[in-house]
Amino acid sequence: MATISVPLGQQQEVKAVKRPALSEYLRWSVDHKIIGVQYGVTALLFFIIGGALAMGIRLELWTPELDVMVSGAAYNSLFTMHGTIMIFLFIIPMWGAYGNYVVPLQLGAKDMAFPWLNAFAFWLIPPAGIVMLLGYFVGPAEAGWTAYPPLSTIFSGDGQTLWALGAHLLGISSIMGSINFIVTIMNMRPPEMTIWRMPLL
């Protein structure tokens, strides 16, 4: 290993990296790292809510009688909300958190291909989650997290409608994020990095 001595007058000052303030994470940003952290924190908050619902389900299953819930319909609605939150509001956004933070760094890109679309895709998630949770209080959805017929036709009410609206908003967010990832990976990698040479993690 070779060493190079730099004359004292030519040394460059190393500047400290400025960390974003907490307020940066609470407002609209087009920085992929901040959006990745926003995805992760939002997913963890919904994970806590989904975990609390799971504890309610487990408490009900403790004995054969209805102990915690007042009816079987309440159990169905709790199960529906738990499954929905864990799949659509935790697992999928957590992949978005990881991808937003890491993919541009691995490609050597400054940001995602469409930073504004990236931010908009994230900011659809909290309202969609709130709409789904509000549906629980106006006549909860009882059709399960898949909402397959015949349950979705039997249990159709305001809560099921709000649940479907939230699911559609989450789907739009996911599609926008996916398009952004595909365009970033296909168009923003270095010329010598082919698809097969891209890092997996």
Write the layout of secondary structure elements.
Layout (H helix, E strand, L loop, with lengths): L21 H4 L6 H29 L11 H36 L7 H9 L1 H11 L15 H4 L3 H30 L14
Helix pairs in contact: 2-3, 2-4, 3-5, 3-7, 4-7, 5-7
Number of domains: 1
Kindly report the average pLDDT value. Answer: 85
User: What is the count of helical runs?
Assistant: 7
Order of helices and strands: HHHHHHH
Number of strands: 0
Low-confidence parts: none
Roughly how many Å is the radius of gyration? 23 Å
- How far the N terminus sits from the C terminus, by CA atoms, comes to 30 Å
Give a short account of the largest sheet: none
The 3D shape can be described as elongated
Structural class: mainly alpha
> Helicity, in percent?
55-70%
- What proportion strand? under 5%
Can you give a write-up of this model?
The chain has one domain (30-197). 61% of the residues lie in helices and 0% in strands. The protein has seven helices and no strands. The protein is elongated. The model has no long low-confidence stretch (mean pLDDT 85).
What distinguishing features does this structure have?
single chain; mainly alpha; 201 residues; 0% strand; 61% helix
Short overview:
This protein has 201 residues and is an all-alpha fold. It has one domain (30-197). It is built from seven helices and no strands.
